[in-house]
Write a structure and sequence with these properties.
alpha/beta, Rossmann fold, 3 helices, 32% strand
Length: 205
């Protein structure tokens, strides 16, 4: 009987020890979705076309709130105790929407869930979105997106393009990676704006 009580006492102590261990708080990070207007590429008033923007598609690995880092060619791993405030897909979709409404030839841009009708649809695939750790001890935030501009009525693909941005990280930790990915995302949005502006003669007014 004494032995049984002793075992129960030890188990109780172990459970009590587990209960007092606190789980580290999860840090939340975001992609800055604000976009400054570029006066050199401000939209023209004579354009009447409306663009709808679909949320970027991606692999299941990217389409979650994990902040990913890559140390070799084939593996992606999540940082512990750190998360995106939303999926990269949704954050980038919001960033593109903000920039297009301020800087492109379209009269306005709408999110894909809007009931408003769009003359064109911008679809995209998020191919890379991670913090890459290099063998020499440096690291980069890498964002790669492929875009497809589609004429809504006919379903015709008007143009496609792919953009890659690699930004050096100030540190090998989560904060360094997040900052680099923010800058890389901004770079992608700027290249997207320049590309859409170059299609001025392709898109009917």
């Amino acid at each position: 009987m004494t032995k049984r009580y002793l075992i129960l006492f030890v188990i109780a102590i172990l459970f009590a020890g587990c209960a007092t261990n606190t789980i580290p708080a999860t840090d939340l990070y975001a992609i800055n979705i604000t976009c400054d207007s570029d006066q050199s590429s401000v939209k023209k008033n004579n354009h009447t076309k409306v663009l709808k923007i679909a949320t970027p598609k991606s692999s299941a690995t990217i389409k979650n709130r994990h902040i990913l880092y890559q140390e070799n060619e084939f593996s992606l791993n999540p940082y512990a105790h750190s998360r995106w405030s939303d999926t990269p897909n949704k954050m980038l979709g919001s960033l593109f929407l903000s920039c297009i409404n301020k800087n492109t030839i379209f009269r306005t841009a709408l999110p894909s869930h809007s009931k408003g009708r769009g003359d064109y649809l911008l679809e995209s695939t998020l191919l890379d979105f991670h913090h890459h750790i290099n063998t020499n001890g440096s690291s980069d935030g890498i964002v790669r997106v492929e875009f497809y501009l589609i004429e809504s009525k006919s379903g015709t693909v008007v143009a496609t393009n792919e953009f890659l941005s690699k930004v050096s990280s100030e540190s090998l930790n989560t904060k360094g990676g997040v900052k680099a990915l923010n800058t890389a995302s901004k770079n992608i949005s700027q290249r997207l704006m320049q590309w859409l502006l170059s299609l001025d003669n392709t898109i009917t007014h």
